[in-house]
Amino acid sequence: MTGPDQPGAAEAVTRAHRAEWAWVVAALARRFGDLDVAEEAAAEAFATAVERWPADGVPPNPGAWLTTTAHRKAIDRIRRESRRDEKHREARMLHDDEPAAPTGAIDDDRLRLIFTCCHPALGPETRIALTLRMVGGLTVAEIARAFLVRETAMAQRITRAKTKIKAARIPYRVPSAADLPERVSGVLAALYLIFNEGYLATGPETPPVRQELTAEAIRLARLVRSLLSADGEVAGLLALMLLTEARRTARVSASGELIALGEQDRGAWDTELIEEGHRLLVERLATGQPPGRYQLLAAINAVHTAARDVRDTGWTQIVALYDRLAHLDPSPIVALNRAVAVAELDGPDVALAAVDRLEEPLAGYHAFHATRADLLRRLGWSTDARAAYDRAIALAGNTAETAYLTRRRDQLG
């Protein structure tokens, strides 16, 4: 146990918050069936730890201490809010049945919590916000900054979500086998959106890369992976995140400009993350099961990260992977990304013809105009390229991307 007033106590609380928050909230949500009670009691328990651990020392099992303390805080809240004998009896009954120390069984509780936060009855942005708060332990202020909204507005959104879960009697459980594939996809979509907002932030008022969000998305993906180890798409999403995150330090220059994949210093890529991502994909390949969307996206990134030099990139393999992806996800964005690879194989003129066919669905998407501008530049059509760059710059919100596009436009002369 850490001794009284040792500075390690504050670090221990921080570590415990990262490691134990989801365990504590999930355990309380299962016991009380109320996310409000679970969240507030957990927050009070951590606040108590901040006060007591520096003086009393860090307990040998922080998770058990926090769970027990949070349970007592929840009982106190029920008693304070209760005015009926029945509620008092319920509180006494619950108080007499305090939880044991966290065990592996609580893993199931965390999984139930994730599925509750990502229930299809909630809107996509609400699912993300609720997951970040209840499972990730981010503060309302941190989530509000991620969404570029006022803290009060985000607090109201999260409160309404918890109220809807309670009013609609959304069950706190893992979905049935029949519903699981669809529900898992919702969880993965929420985590992927969190990661993407960190990978390339959408707002001009935020840093271009939000490492705290990419790190949180990866942490939550690891959690889901530990609970659903046989699910190929869970492994695929984790691999995709790892292979993308591996390039983070090479993606933005010292002056704050985005660095295109082909121009990045590959020696700065994180080899450990790359090896882990490749290993996950090899393990999935060994199962013989057909890959899903996230596995194919990860495989495309694996081809990129396997090339020591951009000239060694296996573009034929990448186009083939995009062809398979298009069968699963025939979206215009997949077609746009495929066209970028086609340009490396068949030339910018062939790719431009494919891109121009996507104008109607992607007219408001900055990456469409940026891709088109680059192809026009490579073909020597400077006037048209400049107009496309202007449109891409007007639509882009990321400061690093805007700086990159502006420089490329100005190089046209």
From TrEMBL:
GO terms for molecular function: DNA binding; sigma factor activity. Residues 80-98 have a biased composition (Basic and acidic residues). Pfam families: DUF6596, Sigma70_r2, Sigma70_r4_2. It comes from the Bacteria. Residues 114-165 form the RNA polymerase sigma factor 70 region 4 type domain. InterPro entries: DUF6596, RNA_pol_sigma-70_dom, RNA_pol_sigma70_r2, RNA_pol_sigma70_r4_t2, RNA_pol_sigma_r2, RNA_pol_sigma_r3/r4-like, TPR-like_helical_dom_sf, WH-like_DNA-bd_sf. Transmembrane segments: none annotated. Keywords: Sigma factor, Transcription, Transcription regulation. Residues 23-84 form the RNA polymerase sigma-70 region domain. Residues 80-103 are annotated as: Disordered. One of its GO terms (biological process) is DNA-templated transcription initiation. NCBIfam families: sigma70-ECF. Belongs to the sigma-70 factor family. ECF subfamily. This is RNA polymerase sigma-70 factor (ECF subfamily).
